[in-house]
Amino acid sequence: MTIQESMQQIGQQARKASHAMLRATDKQKAMALEAMAHALDAQRGSLQAANNIDLEAGRAKQLAAPLLDRLTLSDRSIDTMIAGLRQIAHMADPVGSLTATTVRPNGMQVAQMRVPLGVIGIIYESRPNVTIDAAALCLKSGNATILRGGSEALHSNLALGKIIRMGLKAAGLPEHAVQVVETPDRAAVGAMITMTDYIDVIIPRGGKELIKRLANEARVPMIKHLDGNCHVYVDKHADLEKAAEIAFNAKTYRYGVCGAMETLLVHQDLAAEFLPELGNRFATHGVELRGCARTQALLSSALPATEEDWATEYLGPILAVRVVDSIADAIDHITRWGSGHTDSIVTEHIQAAQQFQREVDSSSVYVNLPTCFADGFEYGLGAEIGISTNRLHARGPVGLEGLTTLKWILQGNGQIRG
User: What pLDDT shows up at residue 363?
Assistant: First the structure.
């Protein structure tokens, strides 16, 4: 069987399973997730043995230390996956919920019902925990899913796929409701992103090159995010102590998350007082600063910033810093260089806060918070499949509700249209 034929078969099975999932009860879905959690705990030894095969291959290929770290299924990461499964199992099921009903003049009742998207294809790299997270979220939201992880995690993902099937079987759910693609051949990705008959939406989770490739080649709609080029703007009405804590946390909480601050914008009225102390704090933490001319005049250690710096998602201990003349200049900078992910203003002035939240066109816009709060768990979504910078269909952290859509539900008593 060719890759194309194999993927067509997987797609057909997923479509059939998605129809069966429309009959799945919340009790069944919760039972499946609890069974997966139990199997994860019971199968630690075999799971970590499979993971070790991937880690040995990764070391032989001289994968970078951060990639090996993301690839590792430690006891702690397995415990996190187990906790995540149980958390999602107990979350409210969005499927079948109704909006407020309106009654038309002829007595017709009109509402909308939340329903699954159908079949979701997820393409991701490195992190085998995504296999469990994605399967759990798609299952809870009533979708069938096709998971294609990175080749570097193939053995880990296949072992996790067996655990997922155990959970589905225990709950009496269709075995093809979650399928893990078993081939590392990249042709499988090419097939998935063009299977419009069988896949309703693709969600990519990976690096910039993967996202660009899929954006150029996909025929199936995507929920995606590109760069997380996030900004914090310190307004002239900011509390400087609060601003320093927010800016430092936004950058140093974790460098590699998509919500990490990559550019700090500071109003000119505060720069001379604010930047030197904060610059020293960043320096002692090993953060390299790259600044505009006014920033360099205040921070002798700052390297000159280029246009490329304003556009870059560093995902590391580098920060671009710019002094701006006004809130309008800060908003203009974000509009020009931002990625539409997450941006924040630090201010005690309510009108400035309102202007910033109204005019900054990002999926999340904060007031007096660090951008590293860009996480579905922190939003109260319980978990997320990713953070979307799309305008359609979901925007920002994509949780259970983001994996559903709405259909119109009308009820009458024999009315006819005259």
Answer: 96
Confirm if 277 and 270 have CB atoms less than 8 A apart.
no
Q: pTM of the predicted model, to two decimals?
A: 0.89
> Is the backbone peptide bond immediately before 349 cis, with ω within 30 degrees of 0?
no
Three-state SS at 260: coil
How big is the CA angle at 243 (ends 240 and 246), to the nearest 5 degrees? Answer: 155
SS3 state at 266: strand
Indicate the length of the chain as a whole number: 418
The CATH number of domain 3-223+398-411 is 3.40.605.10 = yes
Task: Give the burial string for 55-74 (b: 16+ CB within 10 Å, else e).
Answer: bebbeeeebeeebbebbbbe
CA 235 to chain centre: 29
Q: What region, left, alpha or beta, does residue 199 occupy, with left being phi > 0 and alpha being psi -120 to 50 degrees?
A: beta
* Domain edges within the chain: 3-223+398-411, 230-373
Residue from 186, 93, 78 nearest 139 by CA: 93
State which CATH number among 3.65.10.20, 3.40.309.10, 3.40.50.1110, 3.40.50.10490 fits the domain covering 230-373: 3.40.309.10
Instruction: Residue 26: count other Cβ atoms within 10 Å of its Cβ.
Output: 16
How many CB atoms sit inside 10 A of residue 177's CB? Answer: 29
Average pLDDT, the chain: 95
Q: Give all strands (DSSP E) within 193-276, no chain letters.
A: 201-205, 230-234, 261-267
Q: What are the C-alpha distances in Å from 293 to residues 24, 279, 289, 290, 300?
A: 61, 15, 12, 10, 11
**Which pLDDT tens digit goes with each residue over 214-231?**
989 999 999 987 789 999
